[in-house]
Amino acid sequence: MKQILLLISVLYSYYSYSQDGLSRYVADPTKSAIEWTGKKLTGEHYGEIMLGSGELTFSKDKLVGGTFEMDMNSITCTDITDVKSNKRLLDHLKSEDFFSVNRFPTSQFTIISVEVKSANEYYVTGNLTIKGKASPVSFPVKLRNENNQLLADATITFDRSKYDVKFGSQSFYENIGDQLVYDDVDISIKMTLKKEENN
User: Fold this and answer.
1) Residue 5 has what DSSP assignment?
2) Cα gap 9→106, rounded to integer Å
3) Domain assignment of residue 5, yes or no
4) What's the CA gap between 120 and 117, in Å, rounded?
5) CA-CA distance, 170 to 50, in Å (whole number)?
6) How far is the first Cα of the chain from the last one, in angstroms, to the nearest whole number?
């Protein structure tokens, strides 16, 4: 009898989920892109990071949740053309001075609240987790449908000092002169997603 009641409960939950109009869109990492920009006193560097996974959830055609994951091992630098200098920077970014990639190979973001701005624009707040440390960030998101796919664009600015990324940061060191690296880092995200069909 208990098993029958449990089955009824599961089926009712699934039915309620479907009736609420919830739908899930899953990102295609091969058609998505993440670009980063970091600035220092003497200039800036920029490059790319591969999307590991991503998804957005909608209720009655309104964004209500979502998450994405970045593959920190995939980080590249596209502004330095000299091979040795490029590798030196990437090795440094992956080291304990910055993102400790060996210990923390992925970074994640999870939406915790959504404000509707228009039919295709939202303002989201969520937890960004880097090096195992979570801190909230907020930013606008634009969505559009194209060729049976959902396209999502967003730019996030986060304070690296909140994630224990210390190198060249005035938040941790004084009088660092021209070694200063600004705490704010920008990441621009373009996700291509497709609706998950219920079997």
Assistant:
1) H
2) 36
3) no
4) 8
5) 29
6) 28
- Average the pLDDT over 3-28 and give the result: 57
pTM above 0.70, yes or no: yes
- Give the structural domain span for 112: 22-195
Distances (CA, A) of 109 to 45, 47, 93, 163, 168: 23, 19, 20, 13, 25
* Residue 141, burial from CB neighbour count under 10 angstroms (0-12, 13-18, 19+): buried
Interval 171-196: pLDDT, tens: 787 777 667 889 999 999 999 999 99
Is residue 187 domain-resident? Answer: yes
The CATH number for 120's domain is 2.40.128.110
Tally of domains in the chain: 1
Q: How far apart are CA 55 and CA 120, in angstroms?
A: 17
Looking at the domain assignment, is residue 8 inside a domain? no
Per-residue pLDDT tens over the stretch 19-78: 457 899 999 999 999 999 999 988 999 999 999 999 999 998 899 999 999 999 999 999
* Domain assignment present for 66: yes
